[in-house]
UniProtKB/TrEMBL annotation:
One of its GO terms (molecular function) is DNA binding. This is Helix-turn-helix transcriptional regulator. The keyword DNA-binding applies. The lineage of its organism: Bacteria, Pseudomonadati, Pseudomonadota, Alphaproteobacteria, Rhodobacterales. Pfam families: TetR_N. Residues 20-80 form the HTH tetR-type domain. Keywords: DNA-binding. It comes from the Bacteria. Coiled coil: none annotated. It comes from Rubellimicrobium roseum.
Length: 190
């Protein structure tokens, strides 16, 4: 009955590669595509090709391209350590957290571009981070919360744009860090 079949799986069953397919492999392949070709490169077909499975196998795990892209963008921002919001952080703590975001964004700049194009992709971790920074500013001056967050975020993204054309500039990185620390002190009125 199984003559001619070499996989040992019944008709209509996915090949063994698809059976072992998991979120980590899908996200890693998606991140690689994002880094290589931006948001447009992150497709079900592209990930499937990298993993040796069918696009439907990837879709089954992600719920479609939007789900795939959301997971990839979330993974690009994973590990963003959001400090507990129950204490008044120092400007140095806010600057350190902000610089940690900048480093995550620098590792995967296409994820930032995807967020600019599609705000619905904003991962929960990044929403918590933004709320924490806004909250820290509001503890000092509620009227400055949105403006202060916008200043920090815009400065970081401006730096990322500059770094994309001069990637290994140590002096620019040093100046950036010092400016983020100064900007954090300013928006926190310290």
């Amino acid at each position: 009955m199984t003559e001619g079949r070499t996989s040992g799986r019944g008709p209509g069953r996915p090949p063994l590669a698809a059976a072992a397919l998991g979120d980590d492999a899908i996200v890693a392949a998606g991140l690689a595509l994002l880094d290589e070709g931006g948001e447009a490169a992150v497709t079900l077909r592209g990930v499937a090709r990298r993993l040796g499975v069918t696009p439907m196998a990837v879709s089954h795990h992600t719920g479609g391209r939007d789900g795939l892209l959301a997971r990839v963008v979330a993974a690009a921002h994973a590990g963003l350590d959001v400090p507990p919001g129950d204490h008044k952080a120092s400007a140095a703590e806010v600057a350190a957290a902000t610089l940690a975001y900048a480093q995550a964004a620098q590792r995967h700049p296409a994820a930032v571009a995807a967020l600019f194009a599609r705000s619905d992709l904003m991962p929960d971790e990044l929403k918590r981070f933004s709320a924490w920074v806004r909250g820290q500013i509001a503890l000092r001056d509620p009227s400055m919360a949105d403006r202060g967050l916008a200043l920090l975020v815009d400065y970081i993204h401006g730096h990322l744009l500059a770094a994309s054309v001069a990637p290994e500039d140590a002096e620019m990185e040093h100046t950036f860090r010092a400016n983020v620390e100064q900007l954090a002190r300013w928006v926190l009125a310290e």
